[in-house]
Write a structure and sequence with these properties.
This protein is an alpha/beta fold. The protein folds into two domains: 116 residues, 3-Layer(aba) Sandwich (Rossmann fold); 126 residues, Arc Repressor Mutant, subunit A (Orthogonal Bundle). The chain has twelve helices and seven strands. The strands form two sheets. It has a five-stranded parallel beta sheet with strand order 2-3-4-1-5, with helices on one face. It has a two-stranded antiparallel sheet with strand order 6-7. Helix 10 packs across helix 11.
Length: 249
């Protein structure tokens, strides 16, 4: 996070990877806008210009954090103005860039670096337990739990409700739920869209869109096949990986 000494930053990451906790630990004195708070969300959703009014005389040496920035895309116009005209530094934190991309939001034209936060790795856990990591996954709350099953189920339920149903990313939630189960079975394997489409009862193009949803909400990643030269297209199918083994389980 040393880049924030000079630059603004987009900090993306799946839910519960620890983004907010990290920022509170690193920057305890930063001014913070938490859009998960209903009153904060309501006033800035109605009047995004309040951000500019409240920060126009702020000290450029003080960092400003906006948590869950994707909830109000229009705020990014105000952030752009404050960066350009007041040299204020921001950390813009969120769990999905999809909503910003879909609505054509101002992504600040290179004025903010982009970084992604992932679950824990073994080097970050002093008494690392491989058996626990394999079964629980490496999201902090799940790894530390004695019985993480209910937390994992709640995590998937919250993802389906908040990221998929609430933003209407998929019209058919039942087929998308089925797709998530099948894609978990395929995690780490080469993807054949036609086969998955048959199992889900949707078209291959719909399956491609579903994988795109998982990528843009930070839940999974497609790794393209290797090609030796930039002039040749990769002939092997991509592989798909969920971001955390606990979610796969």
């Amino acid at each position: 996070m040393e880049e924030t000494a000079e630059d603004s930053l987009f900090l993306w990451g799946a839910r519960q990877t620890g983004k907010s906790t990290l920022l509170k630990t690193l920057f305890p004195g930063a001014r913070r806008y938490d859009l998960l708070k209903s009153e904060e969300f309501e006033r800035l959703f109605r009047n995004p210009e309040l951000l500019r009014e409240e920060l126009k005389d702020a000290d450029p040496n003080n960092l400003v954090i906006i948590d869950e920035v994707q909830k109000i895309p229009r705020l990014l116009d105000e952030v752009h103005w404050l960066i350009s005209n007041r040299n204020i530094r921001f950390v813009l934190c969120g769990s999905s860039a999809r909503k910003l991309v879909r609505c054509g939001a101002n992504l600040l034209g290179g004025r903010a670096l982009r970084t992604v936060m992932y679950p824990l790795v073994s080097a970050e856990v002093s008494d690392f337990d491989l058996h626990k990591a394999i079964h629980n996954g490496m999201l902090p709350r799940h790894y530390m739990a004695q019985n993480p099953q209910r937390r994992l189920q709640a995590y998937i339920g919250d993802y389906l409700n908040e990221e998929i149903r609430a933003e209407a990313l998929s019209r058919n939630l039942l087929s998308f739920t089925r797709f998530m189960e099948i894609s978990a079975q395929c995690s780490g394997e080469m993807i054949v869209y036609k086969n998955i489409a048959q199992d889900c009862g949707v078209s291959a193009n719909t399956v491609k869109e579903y994988f795109q949803i998982l990528e843009q909400t930070m839940i999974g990643y497609l790794i393209q096949g290797f090609t030796a030269t930039s002039k040749r297209r990769a002939i092997s199918a991509p592989k798909f990986y969920y971001f955390d083994v606990g979610i796969v389980n």
